[in-house]
Amino acid sequence: CRFPGIFNSTKRCLATETSVPSNDSSSAEAKPTGPQYEAHTDFVYRGPEGVDPADTSYILFPGQASQFVGMGSKLLQFPRTKEVFEHASEVLKYDLLKLCLSGPERKLALTQFSQPAIFVTSMAALLALEELHPDAVPRCIGTAGFSVGEFAAYTFAGTFTFEEGLRLVQVRAQAMQSVSDQIPGGMTTCLLTADADIGKAMKAARDHCQTKHAMIRPVCNVASHLYARCVVLAGHREAMQYIQQHHKDFGIASCKPLEIVTSLTRRRSDTPQPNVYEVGPGQQLGYILQKINNKAYAKYANVPVGHFGLIVLQAFESGSGKGTGMPPRMPCTTDLTAVDASRIGSTSHCILEFALPVQSDMAAAASEPAIIAFSVKYSGKEIQINSLSSDSSLAQLQSLLYEATRVAPDNMKLLGLKGKNLSDSLAKLSELGVKSGSKLMLIGTPDAEIKQVTEEKHESVEFLEDNEAYCDGEVKLEHRPEYLDKIERRIREYKITELQAPRAGKKLLVLDIDYTFFDHKSVGSHIDELTRPYIHHLLTVAYPHYDIAIWSATSMKWIYSKLGEMRLFASEMFKISLLVDSLACISVYCEEDEANVNVKPLAVIWGQYPQYSASNTIMIDDIRRNFAMNPQSGLRIRPFRQAHQHRQHDRELIRIAEYLEAIADVEDFRELDHRRWEKYAAKRAKKRAKLEQKQGDSANPDSAGPA
């Protein structure tokens, strides 16, 4: 270990009272001697026999949401604490101490930064504890951590080194952030009365999300039991907001949203994100994980490590007066003597958990509707459907039928449905008259047959979209008076939907939806499977520099529906300012196609919002002809098609985000050639890296030489 003393000091704890078996196979059945472990668990430790509890101590570590700007500032007065932050910065590849001391708060709140910050600050606080209370560590008979604090507890106990623990925390935080970027969620602490029906409350919240927010598979589950009659719920932000507004209707005495930027929790049966585990660096991760297993917990550590709730319970039961809560800030809003150990389950077995709550079987059974069985006839064959419920949507049925027939939902016609919402993919099967025993008929042409007919035409269109002179004749379209008249009419008559007032000094980013960051032709069981990876990342990076507008050549109804399902309205990291639909488009004559085509003239926005112009606006779309009236302002993105094949490896939006950040300080965008955006972004990134390296060398003149 790089730091002598405190991180190795636990090796002397209880050295004369307990024998710690080795972790090899020859001692697999060995039992610790001296202090006794409870029969019902491997990790509840009662301390050495004959020792007065008043002479013992427990060391507890905080979890996420305890971070704050300025954390660690008071620790720097103690020896070696700054060295802890410096070494952590070397491992993490960014200045952690600067982030802790100066923020910004928004960045520090992100999971990928807050968890390493809490872990490292806790480790530095141990050094301060050694100075302030020299007897705290030698008298320690137990340690525990809440959430990410478990990693600090295991590091303190000697299960793995400081650097190994930090790398594990970094990998875990990056994975959770990856999920959070795609599926932002929320958490709420609920204090229950004796008559509370938490299962009914969760079902009502999910129903609310389905009916009011058009979500296909909303999530609202119990994430953890803190103590008797106190649970933490997790799920979509809209579900959390519903619980907070209607909690008294379900016997919930009070509820409080957790101030935490967290990933959306899912039930175990849900499909995981394909790129959740594509995080790094994770050096020696496999080796570290081999050391961390259920048997090792009882034998590997020199100081027993337990679940936070149980170790707190035993501390108060034993009468120990030396419980030590570690900085940054230990939230303590409950009576710890009321902890009900039977309601608390260990999370220690899942060292790389990704916030996957396990809903109780009884609650799940009470809230989930019954499965219905029916058949769909297609091409003379019957397809048996026996995995959907009456609450399942038409889109879910279409997804199953697509897997069986390869007929795309847009090409499906289902005979036998009833009701008024036959074309609404979000309509429940019960609303469409589907029940057990129903017989439907499907009419439609499979994708392969359609592709064979349209392939030649598709290639021609792709060529035209890439042609720089697309739709231009002898006179450039943007100068033709008949089209300028149409634009003037749109400025006068069309009303742009404003969600947030433009901010002073910001540039404008205009984004298309279909094929830009959403595959609207493919079929998936959840909208996340069709959403381009890193759209939340792109908007988060862009927001400090750009106001955000969404312009889709569809109706406003579908814009709201798609953005709502993707939770782009609910993010705390960015806000969408303007929405523009197909009614703002104009038609122009395309000589190559010998037909009229719709385009998106940015002058409609500029006419209603004069602070924006060609000098500070960039438009990103997958179809080049949409830039016909403002070619200088357009950046053509690679279309996001066939999401199931390409989603896992698609990094287009990461590169676009880098480019947007790189050009944010350019005074006039008309000086740029967006066709060369990839080269420009790479050049700026290389230049910035050299500058940061130069600044680092000047700040640390002694670091340049050999170690």
Number of domains: 4
* Order of neighbouring strands in the sheet with most strands: 14-17-16-15-20-21
What's the tally of helices? 21
Q: Structural class per helix/strand content?
A: alpha/beta
CATH architecture of the largest domain: 3-Layer(aba) Sandwich
Describe this protein with a few key phrases:
707 residues; alpha/beta; Malonyl-Coenzyme A Acyl Carrier Protein, domain 2; Alpha-Beta Plaits; Ubiquitin-like (UB roll); 4 domains; six-stranded mixed beta sheet; five-stranded antiparallel beta sheet; 21 helices; 21 strands; disordered C terminus; hydrolase
Topology at a glance:
Layout: E1 57-61, H1 81-92, H2 96-102, H3 105-109, H4 111-132, E2 140-145, H5 149-157, H6 162-182, E3 184-192, H7 198-212, E4 220-227, E5 230-236, H8 237-246, E6 252-257, E7 262-263, H9 285-291, H10 294-299, E8 305-307, H11 308-317, E9 323-325, H12 361-367, E10 371-378, E11 381-389, H13 394-405, E12 413-415, E13 439-443, H14 447-466, H15 481-493, E14 497-498, E15 507-511, H16 535-542, E16 546-551, H17 556-565, E17 576-580, E18 586-590, E19 595-599, H18 603-608, E20 617-621, E21 634-636, H19 643-646, H20 652-662, H21 677-699
Parallel strand pairs: 1-2, 1-9, 2-8, 10-13, 15-16, 15-20, 16-17, 20-21
Antiparallel strand pairs: 3-5, 3-6, 3-7, 4-5, 10-11, 12-13, 14-17, 18-19
Domain FCP1 homology: 502-663
InterPro entries: Ac_transferase_dom_sf, Acyl_transferase_dom, Acyl_Trfase/lysoPLipase, FCP1_dom, HAD-like_sf, HAD-SF_hydro_IIID, HAD_sf, Ubiquitin-like_dom
Pfam families: Acyl_transf_1 (PF00698), NIF (PF03031), ubiquitin (PF00240)
